[in-house]
Design a protein that fits this description.
Radius of gyration: 21 Å
Strand content: 15-25%
Order of helices and strands: HHHHEEEHEHEHHEHEEHEHEEHEHHHH
Helix content: 40-55%
Number of helices: 16
Strand order of the largest sheet: 9-8-7-6-10-11-12
Shape: globular
């Protein structure tokens, strides 16, 4: 039977390996244990439990916050170009509405499942609370590889999925946004579908839209910009100059690609990046601008076929283990686990993705003195500017990009300082400090509102 392995177990194995004990090896039971241990919803619950214990939350509040409030699973038909119909499965999960309407992205990916969406919705609750914007957390997804669909099929799938979840969606209820493999155009289709149902344009029902239909300036770069700000603040408070720092970025999309470009502009040396085609490394530093221009001209905006003098290919696994100052995992969950954490050679991990580090890896990093700036802080730039877009849509009054970026920087830097202060005062990791702040805010809101009826 699978059992939950906590941080102490990871520490024990890590120290045993250092002392020459046999390394952890795979067998049938171990594979099952790893699958259960890396279940994102179990990880999200474990992270919450740790914070709830330190906060001494009442048991009834813990029970409410430990599980999602609403879950919708839909199986819906889409007519494909060949004339036949295929049924797809999608989800929308609302974790907690105590601080306001719920907010969270929609992802299209073959690996989407209900536990992943539950975890992402819970993390969104903490993320919104940490940067103190008036939202609860939600998330959605469809089990699909959009690369296998034509543009017409993608639009029909999106509009049908939006119709299926429309009973939950609205500017005062649940506001979706882009996530993995979804784009501003997909958000425009969802907004238009909701608007057709209402009989009038409902601009604030969706964020991450194109600017032409009510999107916010600065939204596309917001998550990557937030990541770069966290690297800057960590360097400032840790005594490093930005031009001293070598950076490795896993993922080269709207988060990783933007973060890499902005860090390069700040003076950092970006030595490696990766996308679905693998990793690219140059010890003296990559030309991130040229790589972004290359990917923009190629299908699915990938780096496949990219070459330049001194650039070598490597696997995503090898990329994560490169010696560097800053490691930015900006792809998917569970990239840093107890299996590779002992070999990570970064000073700081800045989580551009949601849930890239498992609790077991966290424990090893803490033992090794590697700082982790957690996802609910590091990648909160996206939801922060989504909040700005929502406000602009409700008011029909739009801001310029300088204002958006300045407001984003103020919120992100303030959140970083609060987390760092709690981390130092309570002598806990940055992740636990972030959770202590966020969970307390959500718990207080739920306790104040009480239980209906």
């Amino acid at each position: 039977m699978a059992r939950w392995l906590r941080g102490d177990d990871a520490r024990a194995r890590y120290h045993a390996a250092l002392n020459g004990a046999p390394k952890y090896t795979y067998h049938e039971e171990a594979t099952t244990m790893t699958s259960e241990r890396d279940n994102p919803f179990r990880i999200a619950q474990q992270q919450f439990d740790k914070a709830a214990e330190l906060l001494d939350l009442p048991q009834d509040i813990r029970e409410v916050l430990r599980v999602p409030q609403r879950e919708l699973t839909v199986n819906f038909p889409v007519k494909l170009d060949g004339g036949h119909t295929k049924v797809f499965t999608g989800y929308r999960v609302q974790h907690n509405l105590g601080r306001g309407p719920v907010k969270g992205g929609i992802r299209y990916h073959p690996s989407v499942d209900i536990d992943e969406v539950r975890a992402l919705a819970m993390w969104m609750t903490w993320k919104c609370a940490l940067v103190n914007i008036p939202y609860g957390g939600a998330k959605g997804g469809v089990v699909v590889d959009p690369a296998n669909l034509s543009i017409g099929e993608l639009e029909r799938l999106t509009r049908r999925f939006a119709t299926e979840i429309s009973i939950l969606i609205g500017p005062d209820k649940d506001i979706p946004a882009p996530d993995v493999n979804t784009t501003p155009q997909i958000m425009a289709w969802i907004m238009d579908t909701i608007s057709m149902h209402q009989g009038h344009t409902v601009n604030a029902a969706i964020t991450g839209k194109p600017v032409q239909v009510g999107g916010s300036l600065g939204r596309n770069d917001a998550t990557g910009r937030g990541v770069s700000l966290m690297v800057r603040e960590w360097a400032r408070t840790s005594g490093y100059n930005l031009d001293q720092l070598s950076v490795v970025v896993q993922g080269f999309g709207n988060v990783g690609g933007v973060a890499a470009a902005l860090l390069e502009q700040m003076g950092c040396r970006v030595i490696a990046v990766s996308d679905a085609t693998g990793g690219y490394v140059r010890r003296g530093g990559l030309d991130v601008k040229a790589m972004r221009e290359y990917s923009a001209k190629h299908p699915r905006r990938l780096l496949d076929g990219y070459s330049a003098p001194g650039v070598e290919k490597l696997t995503n696994t090898e990329l994560l283990e490169l010696p560097c100052d800053v490691l930015v995992p900006a792809a998917l969950e569970n990239q840093l686990t107890e299996l590779n954490a002992p070999r990570i050679r970064a000073r700081v991990v800045v989580e551009g993705a949601n849930g890239p580090t498992t609790p077991d890896a966290d424990a090893i990093f803490e033992d090794r003195g590697i700082t982790v700036i957690p996802d609910i802080l590091a990648n909160a730039g996206g939801v922060t500017v989504s909040y700005f877009e929502w406000v602009q849509g409700l008011q029909s009054f739009f801001w310029d990009e300088i204002d958006v970026n300045a407001k984003l920087e103020r919120i992100m830097v303030n959140a970083y300082e609060q987390v760092r202060s709690v981390s130092e005062q309570r002598r806990v990791s940055m992740r636990l400090a972030a959770y202590l702040l966020a969970v307390r805010r959500v718990a207080d809101a739920n306790a104040t509102r009480g239980i209906y009826p």
